[in-house]
Amino acid sequence: MTEEGGMPRVEVREYPDRVLTDRHGFHQWLIGLEGVVELEAGGEGAHVEPGQWVAIPSGSEHHYLAPGRNRTLVLDLPVAWCEAAGLADIAPRRLPPAALGGGEMLLEARPDQLAARLHALLAQGRTRHASPRLRLLHLLPAVEADLAYPWRIRDWAARCHMTEAAFARRFRHLTGVAPHAWLTARRLQRACELMRNPRLTLTEIAQACGFHDSAHFAHAFRAHHACSPRQWRQRQPSGA
Description:
five-stranded antiparallel beta sheet, 9 strands, 10 helices, single chain, alpha+beta, about 40% helix
């Protein structure tokens, strides 16, 4: 970990598809390279997309989630170093598409070069971005906590104060899949977890995962796994 008074650390990271919470004693800047990471700090949300630059102040508890494949340039910057370099108070902003050059210009910079390069990038930044209406950090955990509920996409859109069409477009952009496809995949993933319990019947599993009945469950499962739920279950190692 970067410690107060130490040197900056710059690296490319991939974030997981689950909600995590963190707090650290240094400023952290995230610059999107590929995919999306949703971030929330101090009640404010942001989508760290390619070119999007978001700063997390030292000591701020923050929550994050990456709904799909992602690559993010992460800068762990000691507080004292930022103050000395005049980089302590940075608002969210977007960089021009060609500004980063894949991030190599920051990854390869020595500490004495990094401040100048960061100032040069910030000088190219454009508008500050408003907090997104679609908060995956709020929506996705609520859905996954109750997959048996008969979720409708228009209900998700209403939660975000968006039209169903606008919600569907934005959801696909952030996750790479349509809302219904995401929901079906999560239900099937949960079903596979439950099928490892031999005491549960396939009908009970179908109902627990939000499928209308065992036939609906079997059809969706076969389309995704190319075998029936019963066949999949039989193939699992004993005691799994």
